[in-house]
From TrEMBL:
<dbReference type="InterPro" id="IPR052055">
    <property type="entry name" value="Hepadnavirus_pol/RT"/>
</dbReference>
<dbReference type="GO" id="GO:0071897">
    <property type="term" value="P:DNA biosynthetic process"/>
</dbReference>
<dbReference type="InterPro" id="IPR043502">
    <property type="entry name" value="DNA/RNA_pol_sf"/>
</dbReference>
<protein>
    <recommendedName>
        <fullName>Reverse transcriptase domain-containing protein</fullName>
    </recommendedName>
</protein>
Amino acid sequence: MASHLRDKEIRIIVYMDVFLIAHQNRKLLEAQTQISISFLEDLEWVINYEKPSLVSKTRCEFLGLVWDTLEDRVSLPSRKKKSLENHLSKLLTLKRYDWITAIEF
């Protein structure tokens, strides 16, 4: 399915039923989004128009990562960074590591 869209020169990342479509040109992105939606509806997929963001953005969270096209960077969201810092600080303070600590992460 994704290969069919890529054959139409649509840059797309798919994970299960979550899609990210990328293009530098906003108008082309909107057109490619509509092509992709039409293709999925032709395959009898049900599109949840309330959940997805069909508005082009330069920064979005996708698959638990922040994708920033202006800075050309993929990073952890602030809340995940803070959680990771807290867990690492706790591990360094304890000076030991066990599976119970890992499970809490």
